[in-house]
Structures are given as structure tokens and as C-alpha cells.
What does this fold into?
Amino acid sequence: MSGAGVYLYPWDAAGDPGCAERIAGLGVDRVLLAAAYHTVRALTPAHPEHKVVTADHSAVYYQPDRARWSGREVQPVVATWAPGSFHEGAQALRGAGLKVYAWTVLTHNQRLGTVHPEISVVNAFGDRYPWALCTANPRVYEYAATLAAEVAALPEVDGLELESCGWYGFEHLHAHDKTGSSALPAQARELLSLCFCAACEIDYANVGIGPAWLRDQVRTALEPIFAGSPDAFDDATIAALESTLAPVHAVREAAADRFRAEVVSAVREVRPDLPILLHTHPDPRRVGANPGADPASLFAQSVGPVLQCWGSIDDGAATVSAVAQQAPDDVPVVASLLAVANMGGRVESLVKDAVRLRDAGARELRFYHAGLASGSDLNAIRSATTAWNEES
It folds into this structure.
């Protein structure tokens, strides 16, 4: 069946002469290699020269075309800890017969949100989220479109897989995080993800939503949560919030659609036939690394959804099935599984889960993450890939 792939950071492949053959030996036919990525501290258990890499700010792992970025205030930064590693890693992987899809993170960028705070998400209390660039800001979608087009033009790239191509919000897997976000109700996290930057306030006002009024509504709804009230979001409150927020979400969905269209159009201009995949969820209100989008709108752009199935396999299979039923024959629906036991991956059921997702309608499969994986994790990926490739 093929279409199985693993995620890698460029420093996993660069400098490791055995990496390409090790990955090819898993039975996959492609690698999702990070070309632009956010801040991270990562283990590299199989690398012969290093075991921990600290990427202390968001960066790109190739050499940008300075002519392309000339005159643009918001620009990517080259990784000083691994410059050119995307090129080196991609060439080695392709030499082993593997396709290389450039894994590219867009609106999750701590460095750019810190250097240019005015383009980051700001909540109803005026707090900035430097890790989250605002999807509605024209400078952000200009940056994202330029970045995606540049990555697509790299000669080593066989496809493009976009992460955080849409709204990023409150939740952030940040070092030494002290927000206790898991204790907040989902509705509170959603309210804390609404943006009130200048661009968003203009969008709200254009459809008759008073930004100051909306900010007060959000603050009023959240204050009981911060005060510790267990009944802050009872059924009546949630129903009232849904009524208030319906036009707000319509504005945000329109902004996300505009953002995504800009990015896809920019890629099509440089590589018309390049496969484009998007980390997403079919609920348009989702924010984060897999921001929501209506599957029909993706299929209309010939963009394939990558659906994260890291939680309940029943939920994952149901989501894949619902999206696959809408998919045209020429656009793949992709399912992603967490394959690192120490990160909570269901390694013992990876074979069964891979087959379950295939039978639900997934045309391609992703395993996260071969560079972080232990030897036993890699063995599980190999077994799951074998099962995936067998006829159902």
C-alpha cells in the first residue's frame, strides 16, 4: 500500500551515516523532515555524535534565499546549531530511495513573536502569546506564504507537510510551563485563545462585533474560573457563550481560510504539482499545531489532511472515516500515530492501530517520531508498517 512515513528532525539524519539506511529498513517510503521548526529540546538516541539537541529558538534548517526576503521585516532565522542540516539530511535520505516531505511549522514561532510582539496573539486581558503568530495579521500570512513557497522550491523536496497553518492559541508545550492549562475547562482554554490584536479587532468591527464589548464578555466569563468556582461553566453559561461566540468564530474561520489560501497559492506558484498536506482537525474551531479546517475546503484546494490519532483509537478511526468519506480519489487522507513509548505512545498496539486506521479510510500513515524513538519503538514501527502494507 505504501504511503507510510516517519518524522525526523534534520539533526537526526545530518552527521549520522547510518540514519538513511536505518529509516529505509523500517519499510516506510517517505520521511517528514523538519525544514522550519519551533523551539525544542530533543533526544537523539541513535545518533553517533550527540544525544540531546537544544534548539533554543524557532528557526529554519536550510539556507534562505535572501533575494526572496529582501525588504520584508518578518524573516526566518537560520539555525546556528544545525545550519544546512535539512539539505544534508534530505540528500542522504533520498539517496536511500526515500521521498522527503518538508515538515514546515508556520504560526508557532516563539522567536518571531518575541521580536515582533505586535504580530502575536493577544488575549482579552492584554496578555501576549509570543509563541503564537496571529493568523489574521497580513504580515503573518505574508511571512507564512513566503516561507512555504521557499521550502517548496528546495530541490530536495518531494512534498510539503504544513503544521500550525492556522490559529495557534493559549496551549503551548513550553519549557517549565506553569499555566496548569490541563486543569482549565475546554471552554476556558478556547476563550483564552481568542485574539484581540489590532488586526483581529478590525475584523470583529467589520462584522459589527464591538471589540471592547467582546473583550468584556470574555473577561466576565473567565473571572469565575480564576476565582475557583466549580460551576463557572454550567449548561446555561455555555449555551449563552455559544450564542455570543458564533459570529466571532465565523470571523476567525474566515481569517484561517484566507491564511491557508495565501499559503497554498504561494506554493502552487512555484511547484504546481507538489503534494501539499496539512496538519488539521475537521472541527474548524480547533487551534494549535493541528488547527481546524472544513475538510471540503481542503479538498477543493487539493490539500490532504493529516489527522492526529494519538488519543483514543476509536475516536481517531471515527475521525478518519468521516473525513475519508468526503475525500476525492486524488487527495490522500493521512493518519498520524504516536510511536514513542516514553511519550505515551501505544507502541504495544501500533500494528493493530495502523490496520484500524487503514481500514477506516486512511490512504497514508505517519509515525511520530523516528528520531526520538528507542530501538524497541523502531521495531514496533517496522511491524506496523509491514501490517499497513499488507492487503486488507
The chain has a mean pLDDT of 95. The first strand starts at residue 4 and ends at 8. Residues 235-270 form the longest helix (36 residues). The chain is about 40% helix and 15% strand.
